[in-house]
Specification:
The complex is a heterotrimer of chains A (about 250), B (about 325) and C (about 290). Chain A is of the alpha/beta class. Helix content of chain A is about 35%, strand content about 25%. The longest helix of chain A is centred in the C-terminal third of the chain and has 16 residues. Chain B has one domain. Chain B has 14 helices and 4 strands. With about 290 residues, chain C is mainly alpha-helical. Chain C has a domain of about 200 residues. A two-stranded antiparallel sheet of chain C has the order 1-4. A two-stranded antiparallel ribbon of chain C has the order 2-3. The longest helix of chain C has 28 residues. The chains are: A alpha/beta (about 250), B mainly alpha (about 325), C mainly alpha (about 290). Chains in contact: A-B, A-C, B-C. At the B-C interface, helix 6, helix 11 and helix 13 of B face helix 4, helix 8, helix 10 and helix 12 of C.
Chain lengths: ~250, ~325, ~290
C-alpha cells in the first residue's frame, strides 16, 4: 500500500481480538478502510463480520488491539461517542423502532450529527429514498423487511456520517428490493460522500459495490485485496464464501 | 473457619453445629443479663426467618418479596390461639401449618408469573394481609395482641427468661435442622438445579412448578415457625410484623451473610441485629448507616461475607484482557 | 355515587398518580423498579415543610414552594443517578431491586438524621381548607386543586414524551438502548435527566401530600408500595396506564372505604394481586419489542 493510501486511511483495525463474555470471536483481525472507499467484508454466517462491526461500534464485545477512526482511538469510547464521530451504523436486524413512525425513525438519525456536520433535511433524504415518502406516518413495525432496510440506511444517512457500517443489508431481501438497497448504498457513497464498510455474505451483491475486499473466516482475515484480485481466485470464493466459481457468481443475483 | 468446616465430612459438620448450638445455648444465660438473653432469643428467631427466605431466594432462586406474610401468619396464629389455653406445641404446629398452607396457595396461584412479576405478587399479598390485620378488630387492630406469655411446655415451666431462651433455641435449632435436611436432600439439589437452569431442569422431565410450590410452602412454614416463636419471645404481635419492610429485612440479612451459604443468613442476621442494636444506641438515624452498608455490599460484595474468600480468589485469578463492554442491555419486560 | 365520593376518590388517585408517574417513567427507560422512589417522595414532603417553616402560608405560595421543593428533589435525584443508580442498571432484577431498597433505607435514615424522629405536621393553606358547593354536594377545594395539578402533570408528560426531541430520544432508549446509542443519542445524559424528572415528580407528590398526612420517615415505605401497586396495575413503563390505574384505584378505595372504613388501602393490593394473576404486564403494558 502506498504512503498516500495510508494517509487517507479513515478506519483502521490492527490485530484486533474480540470476546463475547469468555468466548473469543475475533483473532488478530486487521482491516483498513480508505477515505471515500467502499470496502466489503465477506464471510459466511458466524465468520465474525458482525463482531467486527460491533467491535468498532463498541457494542457488547470486549476487544484488544487497535481500532482507530480518523486517527482517534475508538477502544476508549462508548457507543454514543463512536457514533458521534460520524459513524452511521446499519445493524444486521435493522433495528427499526417499531412503535415509532417512519418520520420519527428518520429524525432520530439527527443525533449523529455533531459540530459542523449539519443533519440532512428530510426532504433531501426523501429525494434519494422516494419510496419512503408514502410511508412517513406509518409505524416502523408494520413495514416490510425491504422497507425497513431502506429506512435503516436512510436513518443512518440523516446524520451525514463520514463512514457507514452496513451489516448484511442484503439479507432476506427479494431481488427487486435488493436492487433498491444497492442503489441506496451506492448513493450514500456517491451522492453523500460516505465511506462504506459493507459486511456481507452475498458475494455477488457486495462485489458489485466494493473496490476492496476482505474475507473473514472463523474470526480471522484470510484475504485482503482489490475486488478484481478476489474475482481471480475462485478457490477462495468457493472455500470461504460457498460460491462455486467467479463466473457462476457473476451470473446469479442481479 | 467456614472453609475448614466445609472440608469435614457431612456428619462431622452436623456434630460441630450441634456443639456450637449447645455452647451458645449455655453461654448466653450464664454470662448474659436478662436483657441479653431476650435479645439473643429474638436474634435466633430472626435467623430462622432469614433462613426460610434464603431457601427461596438463595437456594431455589424464587424472588419472594413478601415473606412477612407467613411470618405474620405464624405470629398471629399464636396471638389468636394463645388465650384459648391450648398446649404450646399444638399452637406452634397450627402456626406452621397455617403459614405453610397459605404459602402453598399463593405459590400455586402466583407462580405462573415469573421474575419481577412474582416478586410483586408476593409483595401485594403480604401488603393486603397487612392492611386487613391493621384494620380488623378481631386481630387487635393497629395495637395488635399482647400478653402472649408462654407458661409451660411438656410440664417444663417457661415463665423465666432462661427457660424460654432454651425452649426458643431448641425450636429454632429444630427449624434450622429441618431446613438443613431439606436443602441437602435430593429435593434441595433439584431446587438448586432449577435456580441454575429452569429450562434444562424442565427438559429433564422435572415438574419445576411443583418443586417451586413445595419450596415456597416449606419456606412459608419455616417463616411461620419463626413468626410464632417471635410472638412468644416478644410477648405480643403487632401488624408491623406483616409490613413489607419486614420482608426486606431477612433478604438484607441473607445478602450480608451470603446467600449461597447455608449459614449465611445466620451470620447475616447476627451481624445485622447486633449492629442495629449498637447503632441505635448512638443515633436515631441508624437506618442511614444500615442502608449505606447494605448498598456497598450489594454493589461490591454480592456474595456476602461468607462469599468474600471466593470473591477475592476470583479477583486474583481473573486477568482482565480488555476494557469491559460498553453498553450492557437489560431486557425490560420480556419475562412478565 | 355522590359527587364527594367521586372527587375525593379521584383526588386520592391523583396523589397516587403523582407518586407513581416518576416510578413508571424511570422503569420504562432504565428498566429498574426503584424502591428509593418512596424516599424521594418523603424528601419532597419534608423539604416543603422546611421551606414553609411548617407555617400556614397562602395557597399560591404553597404551590410555588412545592414546585421549588420538587426541583430540589430532582437535583438530588440527578446526583443520586450519577453516584449510585448508574451502577445498578445492568444488575439482574432482584439485585437492582435490593440496591434501590438499600438507597430507600439510606434516604429514610437521612430524613431522620435531618428532621428528627418526631412526626411533623404541615398546615393546609387556608384557601384549600374551604369547600365548594355544587347543589347539595360539598367538594373540598384541595381535592379540586389536586385534580388540576395531576391533570397538568399528565398533559405535560404526554407533551414531553410525544412531542419533543428529548421525548423521542427517551422513547427510543426505552425501546432499544443499543440502537439508540448507535445513533448517537447520549444515553447517560438522558438517564440522568430522566431520573431527575422522575424523582422530581415524586418530590412534587410528596410536597402536595404533606398537608394531608403526618410527616415522618415512614412515609417513604408507605408511598413506594402504593406506587408499586399503581404501576403494576397500569403496566410498568406506561404513563397513561399509571394515570388510569391511579384514578381507578383511588376511586375504588374511596368507594370501599364508604362501604367499610376497615377496607382502607385494601383495594390497592387486591387490585395489584388480581392484575398480576390475570394480566402480569398490567392493563397498558406490552411485551418489549426488542429482540
Amino acid at each position: 500500500m502506498s504512503d498516500d493510501a495510508v494517509r487517507d486511511e479513515l478506519l483502521r483495525l490492527e490485530n484486533v481480538d474480540a470476546w463475547y463474555g469468555t468466548a473469543q470471536a475475533l483473532f488478530g483481525v486487521s482491516l483498513s478502510v480508505p477515505r471515500g472507499g467502499v470496502v466489503a467484508l465477506l464471510g459466511r454466517n458466524g465468520a465474525g463480520k458482525s463482531t467486527t462491526l460491533r467491535s468498532i461500534m463498541r457494542i457488547e464485545v470486549r476487544t484488544r488491539g487497535e481500532i482507530s477512526y480518523a486517527g482517534r482511538d475508538l477502544t476508549r469510547a462508548g457507543t454514543t461517542g463512536v457514533a458521534r464521530l460520524g459513524i452511521g451504523y446499519v445493524p444486521e436486524d435493522r433495528r427499526i423502532f417499531g412503535r415509532m413512525t417512519v418520520r420519527e425513525n428518520l429524525l432520530l438519525g439527527r443525533h449523529l450529527a455533531r459540530g459542523d456536520r449539519e443533519p440532512l433535511p428530510l426532504t433531501e433524504i426523501l429525494d434519494t429514498f422516494p419510496m419512503l415518502v408514502p410511508l412517513l406516518d406509518r409505524l416502523g413495525g408494520v413495514l416490510s423487511g425491504g422497507e425497513q432496510q431502506l429506512l435503516a440506511v436512510a436513518r443512518a444517512l440523516v446524520g451525514r456520517p463520514e463512514l457507514m457500517l452496513l451489516d448484511e443489508p442484503s439479507e432476506g431481501l427479494a431481488p427487486l428490493t435488493l436492487r433498491q438497497v444497492r442503489t441506496a448504498i451506492q448513493s450514500a457513497h456517491d451522492a453523500f460522500g460516505a465511506t462504506v464498510l459493507l459486511a456481507e455474505q452475498n458475494a455477488t451483491f457486495a462485489l458489485s459495490l466494493a473496490q476492496r475486499v476482505a474475507v473473514i473466516d472463523t474470526g480471522r482475515i484470510v484475504f485482503t485485496g482489490a475486488t478484481e484480485e478476489l474475482r481471480a481466485r475462485p478457490e477462495l470464493m468457493s472455500r470461504y464464501l460457498g460460491v462455486e466459481s467467479a463466473g457462476a457468481a457473476a451470473g446469479t443475483g442481479s | 473457619m467456614m472453609e475448614r468446616l466445609r472440608a469435614l465430612p457431612g456428619w462431622w459438620r452436623v456434630v460441630a453445629a450441634v456443639v456450637v448450638l449447645v455452647a451458645v445455648m449455655a453461654i448466653v444465660p450464664i454470662f448474659g443479663s436478662g436483657a441479653a438473653v431476650f435479645f439473643w432469643g429474638s436474634v435466633a428467631v430472626t435467623a430462622l426467618y432469614a433462613m426460610s427466605v434464603n431457601l427461596l431466594i438463595g437456594v431455589a432462586g424464587i424472588p419472594s418479596f413478601g415473606q412477612a406474610a407467613y411470618f405474620g401468619i405464624g405470629a398471629y396464629a399464636v396471638g389468636v390461639l394463645h388465650h384459648e389455653g391450648l398446649p404450646i406445641l399444638l399452637v406452634l404446629l397450627v402456626a406452621v401449618l397455617a403459614a405453610g398452607l397459605a404459602a402453598a396457595v399463593v405459590a400455586a396461584l402466583g407462580l405462573r408469573a415469573t421474575g419481577l412479576a412474582f416478586s410483586m405478587l408476593t409483595l401485594a399479598f403480604a401488603q393486603a394481609l397487612y392492611t386487613l390485620v391493621f384494620q380488623l378488630d378481631t386481630f387487635g387492630g393497629e395495637n395488635g395482641i399482647v400478653g402472649l406469655l408462654p407458661e409451660s411446655v411438656l410440664g417444663i415451666d417457661l415463665t423465666d427468661g432462661t427457660s424460654l431462651w432454651l425452649f426458643t433455641m431448641t425450636m429454632v435449632a429444630a427449624g434450622i435442622g429441618g431446613l438443613w435436611i431439606l436443602q441437602h436432600s435430593p429435593f434441595g439439589r433439584t431446587l438448586m438445579m432449577i435456580r441454575e437452569d429452569p429450562a434444562r431442569t424442565r427438559a429433564l422431565g422435572i415438574q419445576v412448578r411443583r418443586y417451586e410450590i413445595a419450596a415456597f410452602a416449606a419456606a412459608g412454614a419455616a417463616a411461620g415457625l419463626a413468626g410464632a416463636l417471635f410472638a412468644y419471645v416478644q410477648g405480643l404481635v403487632v401488624p408491623e410484623y406483616l409490613f413489607w419492610t419486614r420482608s426486606g429485612e431477612p433478604i438484607l440479612m441473607s445478602i450480608i451473610g451470603g446467600m449461597r451459604h447455608f449459614f449465611g443468613p445466620v451470620v447475616g442476621s447476627v451481624i445485622y441485629r447486633w449492629s442495629v442494636d449498637v447503632l441505635s444506641d448512638i443515633t436515631a438515624a441508624w437506618v442511614l448507616w444500615v442502608g449505606l452498608a447494605f448498598l456497598v455490599i450489594v454493589l461490591a460484595a454480592p456474595g456476602g461475607l461468607l462469599g468474600l474468600p471466593a470473591q477475592i480468589r476470583s479477583w486474583r485469578s481473573r486477568r482482565t484482557i480488555a476494557p469491559p463492554s460498553v453498553t450492557s442491555v437489560e431486557s425490560l419486560g420480556d419475562e412478565s | 355515587m355522590s359527587l364527594l365520593l367521586l372527587t375525593s376518590g379521584l383526588a386520592q388517585g391523583m396523589i397516587l398518580f403523582l407518586a407513581a408517574s416518576g416510578l413508571t417513567l424511570v422503569f420504562g427507560v432504565m428498566g429498574v423498579l426503584n424502591f428509593a422512589h418512596g424516599g424521594f417522595f418523603a424528601l419532597g414532603a419534608f423539604i416543603v415543610y422546611s421551606l414553609t417553616g411548617g407555617a400556614s402560608i397562602p395557597a399560591w405560595q404553597y404551590l410555588l414552594l412545592s414546585v421549588v421543593g420538587a426541583g430540589l428533589v430532582g437535583v438530588v435525584g440527578m446526583a443520586f443517578e450519577v453516584v449510585v443508580f448508574r451502577r445498578i442498571y445492568h444488575l439482574p432484577h432482584l439485585d437492582a431491586l435490593l440496591a434501590t431498597y438499600a438507597v430507600l433505607l439510606t434516604i429514610t435514615g437521612a430524613i431522620t438524621q435531618i428532621w428528627g424522629v418526631a412526626a411533623r405536621g404541615q398546615p393546609m393553606p387556608s384557601e384549600f381548607r374551604s369547600a365548594l358547593r355544587f347543589g347539595d354536594a360539598v367538594v373540598p377545594v384541595y381535592d379540586i386543586a389536586l385534580l388540576v395539578i395531576g391533570g397538568l402533570v399528565a398533559v405535560g408528560l404526554w407533551f414531553l414524551l410525544e412531542r419533543t426531541t428529548f421525548g423521542r430520544s427517551v422513547r427510543a432508549i426505552s425501546a432499544d438502548r443499543q440502537m439508540s446509542a448507535s445513533l448517537g443519542i447520549d444515553i447517560k445524559v438522558v438517564f440522568t435527566v430522566m431520573l431527575g424528572l422522575g424523582l422530581g415528580l415524586a418530590g412534587l407528590g410528596g410536597a402536595l401530600v404533606a398537608p394531608l398526612v403526618q410527616l415522618d420517615a415512614g412515609l417513604a415505605a408507605v408511598f413506594v408500595i402504593q406506587s408499586f401497586a399503581v404501576v403494576i396495575v397500569g403496566g410498568l413503563g406506561s404513563i397513561a396506564g399509571a394515570l388510569v390505574a391511579a384514578l381507578a384505584l383511588g376511586l375504588l378505595n374511596s368507594i370501599m372505604v364508604s362501604i367499610d372504613p376497615a377496607l382502607a388501602g385494601f383495594s390497592l393490593y387486591i387490585g395489584m394481586t388480581v392484575v398480576l394473576l390475570i394480566r402480569p404486564q398490567g392493563i397498558f403494558g406490552h411485551r418489549a419489542e426488542r429482540p
